[in-house]
Specification:
Two copies of one chain form a homodimer. Chain A contains three helices and six strands. The first copy, chain A, is α+β, with helices and mostly antiparallel strands. Chain A has one domain: Nuclear Transport Factor 2, Chain: A (Roll), CATH 3.10.450.50.
């Protein structure tokens, strides 16, 4: 299970790498690109299906000038073809102005498809106050 | 799997019923009360382990006068002894003043222990704007 946990964490890293590179093609390779998936961006309403999720990433990427993640892992769990990771996204980002730092809590759920862990749900939420 | 999905939804309902009743003993029966679990209340930092999570519920219950949920299900998935539900919590609540309405998005992850689905992770996040 250690090896499988390692693969799950690699899939999680690939997700944040695609986000840093603002690369929609890479993002498409880390998600399970079906209409079954879900995504909750911090403060947004629930998005259902890859069409809506892809649109959201394209919009986010268009408005982002710089994005860097330092991920703190809290836990990774696997059962069968389902796995999840809870992590803290320590973010340095710029949307045109000076860079700022903030933290987002994320629950990322993955399904194994043809031997590869693919994201089926991302839930990011802001730390308030 | 339909039967198992039904049991998962029942466990999810029991969680919100315990919350509505502001009943810490009931809440303890729906969670996997180990130090492995996590909880992210809307806007809060990540809580680790039942001791911290129980304390948080006691604090929330103490400050809540009235709590009512209308849950809209988005999806429920199971693989082996792991399952999750993504839902919208449509809430009517009072903390002493007049009742107000708001919505929270939740990802609830469950593990089957001795034939019973128990919560191992709750991630609630506010809808902003």
């Amino acid at each position: 299970m250690d090896g499988e946990n390692g693969l799950l964490k690699k899939a999680n890293e690939a997700f944040y790498r695609a986000f840093e590179l603002l690369d929609i093609e890479r993002m498409g390779r880390v998600w399970d690109t079906t209409e079954e998936i879900q995504c909750i961006h911090p403060g947004w309403n629930l998005l259902q299906g890859w069409t809506a999720v892809r649109d959201s990433w394209e919009g986010i990427f268009k408005n982002t000038k710089y994005m860097e993640f330092r991920i703190t892992y809290s836990s990774a769990h696997i059962s069968g073809d389902l796995g999840y990771i809870i992590c803290v996204e320590n973010i340095t980002s710029s949307y045109g102005g000076p860079a700022s730092e903030n933290s987002i809590l994320a629950t990322n759920i993955f399904r194994k498809r043809n031997g590869l862990w693919k994201i089926i749900h991302h839930h990011g939420s802001p730390l308030l106050e």
